[in-house]
């Protein structure tokens, strides 16, 4: 079982991916999360990667390939935001990775901007909150229930967001065309609803696909 979930920055893709990982027992492969975690080691290579990511750019494919190839042994994989480029998409096929289903989360730019503006994250566990959906914290950006501290992501700035969105849409169109030519199933999901509603649609989509396949 190999599933890809795509979504622009602010779409809630990461939140949905975590739910899918938990409920479907996927191995969730998110090169972006891996790079952010490794950057804490402050090696020169990973510091450079973090700088590229924080300014809205894409990390060199060769680095991403090393991360991905090390995880292809798992039977059930959820590719979280990967591939990011056409070259990365062809890398999977060249390595005999058969993609069953692509979940493509879609929503308006206005909705994305609103989410980015009010998004905060716990960098250690990659938990994401939207301030609009939370009651006021007793202590600024500290979750009353878990005690975890949250902060704004460095790249959640308008100019960086616009750059990231442009790069995402430019590469996504090429990847989608490539998958259509390779007869890979693609399903568009409206991601503007509440988290539970979006997840329910995604879960039903995956359940129905595999029920028909097997």
Descriptive notes:
β5 and β6 (127-130) form a beta hairpin. This protein has a 5-stranded parallel beta sheet with strand order 2-3-1-4-7, with helices on both faces. The protein is globular, with a radius of gyration of 17 Å. Helices cover 47% and strands 15% of the residues. It has one domain: P-loop containing nucleotide triphosphate hydrolases (Rossmann fold, 3-Layer(aba) Sandwich), CATH 3.40.50. α1 (13-24) packs across α8 and α2 (31-38) packs across α3 (44-54). The chain has 214 residues and is α/β, with parallel strands linked by helices. The protein is built from 8 helices and 7 strands. The chain has helices at 13-24, 31-38, 44-54, 61-69, 86-94, 109-117, 158-181, 195-213, and strands spanning 2-6, 27-29, 77-80, 101-106, 119-122, 127-130, 185-190.
């Amino acid at each position: 079982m190999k599933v890809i979930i795509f979504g622009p920055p602010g779409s809630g893709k990461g939140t949905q991916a975590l739910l899918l990982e938990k409920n479907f027992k996927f191995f969730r492969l998110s090169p972006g999360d891996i790079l952010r975690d490794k950057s804490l080691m402050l090696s020169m290579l990973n510091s450079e990667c973090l700088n590229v990511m924080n300014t809205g750019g894409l990390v060199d494919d060769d680095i991403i390939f090393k991360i991905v190839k090390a995880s292809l042994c798992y039977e059930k994989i959820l590719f979280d935001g990967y591939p990011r480029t056409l070259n990365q998409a062809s890398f999977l096929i060249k390595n005999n990775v058969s993609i069953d289903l692509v979940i493509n989360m879609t929503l308006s730019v206005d909705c994305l901007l609103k989410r980015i503006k009010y998004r905060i994250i716990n960098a250690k566990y990659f938990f994401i909150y939207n301030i609009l959906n939370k009651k006021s914290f007793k202590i600024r950006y500290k979750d009353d229930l878990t005690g975890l501290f949250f902060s704004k992501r460095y790249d959640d700035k308008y100019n960086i967001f616009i750059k990231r969105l442009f790069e995402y849409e430019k590469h996504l169109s090429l990847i989608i065309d490539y998958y259509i030519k390779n007869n890979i199933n693609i399903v568009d999901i409206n991601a503007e609803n509440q988290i539970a509603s979006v997840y329910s649609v995604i879960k039903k989509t995956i359940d129905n696909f595999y029920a028909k396949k097997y």
